[in-house]
Amino acid sequence: MTFQDYSTPVPLQGNTVRLEPLSRDHVPELRDAVKDGELWNLWYTRIPTPEKMAEEVESRLAQQAAGAMAPWVIRRLDTGMICGMTTYLNIKAEHRRLEIGSTWLAASAQRTAVNAEAKYLLLTRAFENLDCIAVEFRTHWHNHASRGAIARLGAKQDGVLRSNELWVDGSRRDVVVFSILDSEWPSVRLGLRHRLAPLA
């Protein structure tokens, strides 16, 4: 596998969501989605305002062109509306590793099957198409909802990188690192399928 394989988003569809490769045409719908919950006001995340959404899309597309990211939008199948974004990033094709992150979901899509199925689709591609040996997740220490969601996927906590980043307001960000290994994927896959089975 090459960086291009890892950084090329392809359409992925389940029973609840469709992941579409990010494009500039998605900007208007993404602006609407991020207003659902005014997500940019969450102090422990970096989510763009509606006014900064076009800039965020350009940044992600530039990183994709550089082989550093594979960006998608998340579209709900029940409403047909975009409800968030997600990516592969920190791509290390030579080590068959990547991170799933830079994810945000509209408030109305949180605590639904949207996140679990989106992650199931991304993990399936990572392990079964890209032959990854490890997939990583990172989140802010104080983002308890994100930490819980990652743990429910079946990821194990590797550790905490203390004072790993300086945050927007100058505070220090402790980063919690989780991962799933290829040897763990069969059981994680079964767990996710069980969670998603009632929706099939």
Automatic annotation (TrEMBL):
N-acetyltransferase domain mapped to chain residues: 17-156
Database matches in Pfam families: Acetyltransf_3 (PF13302)
Signal peptide: none
Name of the protein in question: GNAT family N-acetyltransferase
Protein's organism: Arthrobacter gallicola
